[in-house]
Amino acid sequence: MKINHEGIKKIRELLKHIVSSPSIIQAFNKIAVVNGLPTKRGIALDIPNCWNSTYKMVGEAIKYKIVLNSYANQHAEISSRTEHS
Predict the structure, then answer these.
(1) CB–CB of 65/37 below 8 Å?
(2) 15-54 pLDDT, tens per residue?
């Protein structure tokens, strides 16, 4: 279970970073278009008191896995920041 919690935490932190700025969402969308995925206005984040929101967040992260990995690789400071948190 700890592995799952750590993975979800990393997804959550990356998604929080992406939705923190319109220019970051724009960069995310450019990568999505290159990979043949639809653009996003925002990304579903989980809500502590809504049991299925984590499921939705992870499902969306899986759908956009290529985009998230590409964005994280291009912006390595984000992944190092979330690893040390």
Answers:
(1) no
(2) 999 999 999 999 999 999 999 999 988 788 888 888 789 8
